[in-house]
Hints:
Elements lengths: L21 H12 L11 E6 L2 E6 L13 H20 L2 E7 L25 E7 L5 H8 L18 H13 L3 E4 L4 H18 L2 H8 L2 E2 L9 E2 L7 H13 L3 H14 L2 E7 L4 H20 L3 E4 L2 H4 L1 H11 L6 E9 L12 H4 L4
Parallel strand pairs: 6-7
Antiparallel strand pairs: 1-2, 2-4, 3-4, 5-8, 8-10, 9-10
Bound molecules: flavin mononucleotide.
Amino acid sequence: MSGKGLEPWQVKESDFPGRGNTQDRLRFLLRYAILAPSGHNSQPWVFRIQDDAIELAADVRRDLPVVDPNRRELVISCGAALGFLRIAAHRFGYHAKVVPFPDSPTLDLPRQTPGSRGWGSGAALARVSFRQGVLPSSDDQALFKATTLRRTNRMPYDERLLPPSLLQGLAQAASAEGAWLQFVPKGERRDRIAEMVEQGSRALAGDPKFRRELAAWIRSNWSGKRDGMPGYAFGAGMPRSFAMPFLIRTFDWGKTQGTAAMDLALAAPELAVLGTPSDTPQDWLKTGQALSQVLLRARAADVSAHFLNQPVQVPDLRARLPDLLGRLSAGCPQLVFRMGFAREVRPTPRRRLDEVLAKE
Ligand SMILES: Cc1cc2nc3c(=O)[nH]c(=O)nc-3n(C[C@H](O)[C@H](O)[C@H](O)COP(=O)(O)O)c2cc1C
C-alpha cells in the first residue's frame, strides 16, 4: 500500500514489541486505534500514555460545528478509536478496563485552543488500564485483522443478502456494548427512511455553511494531507477530485445527491440503524465502541458499510425516526448505514501516531 498519508495502514502484527516496555507496547496498540473511522475523517482524538494506562480526549480543534453542533458524532468517532484500541489490546493478550468520563460525567469541551502540548480541554473521555492474561480466540483474531482492512465503501453493493447468522451476531455485539442495532428490511419502513435520507441531503446541502464545512475536509487525490476525505473515496478521478471542494462549496447539490443517496438506501441488501437507550455523551461513547464491533465483525465476513446519516443529522428527521422504527421508547438513533458485499476500495489517510499523542 503506498500513497501520501497511508503509512499508518502498514502497521504489522509481527512488529508488536513483545520485549519492549509497557510504554512501547501501549504505543503500538494505539497504532490500531488511529485507523478508526471518524466524521469527515477529522480524527478528533488525542491520547496520552500514563504508566500502564491510556487516556483519550477529544481534539476540539477538529470539531464539525455545522453538521455536529452538540459534538455527538465527535464523541462517537472517539468511541470508535476506543473500540479499535480495545480490540487490539485483546489480540495481544490484554484485559482493557475502560473508565468512561473519569474526570467529569458531563461533556465540557470548550472550543478553546488546546495547550501547546495538545491535550484537548484537559478532561478525558475515557481512561483505559491494561492487565495481561487474555488468550485471544480465533474470532478475536479475525476481528483484529479487520482493523487494517475496513473502509467506508460508498460504491454500489451486490444484491446478495447478508447471512442471518451474521445479522444476529452484529446485533448481539452492539447490545453487548450497551447499544442497539436494528435492521430495516425492504418495505414500507425502508421506503420512509430512504425518503428521510433524501430530505436530509436536501436540507443539509441547502445550507451554505454545511457546504463550506464539508468542502474544507474534501481533498484532491494528490493531497499530502493526513486527514479529510480524498475524492477517490467518492469514486472521483484525479481531475474531478481537484474540482470537488469548489463544486461542493458553490452549488446546492442536495437534490441530485439526495436522490442518489435515497436510491442507495432503497437498493441496499441491509440498512441498519445503530442507537442507544438515551442520548448522553456516555451513550455516544458507547455508540462508537458498538460501531467498531459492528463494522469490524462485518468486515471480517467481507461485508462493507457506508453511512447514510442524514436522518440523524437533521434534528426534525431524527425526532421522527424512533416512531418509524417502531421504537416508541428507549430509542435514540445515532447512526444509519447500509451494508453489503462490494468490490474493495482504497484506504483514506491517517495522521501518524506522534501527531495524536499528547506530548508530556
Ligand atoms: C460518527 C461518524 C459519522 C460519519 N458520517 C458519515 C456520513 O454521513 N457520510 C459518509 O459518507 N461517511 C460518514 N462517515 C464515514 C467517514 O467519512 C469515514 O470514516 C472517514 O472518511 C474515514 O474513512 P474510512 O472509514 O474509509 O477509514 C462517518 C463516520 C463516523 C465515525
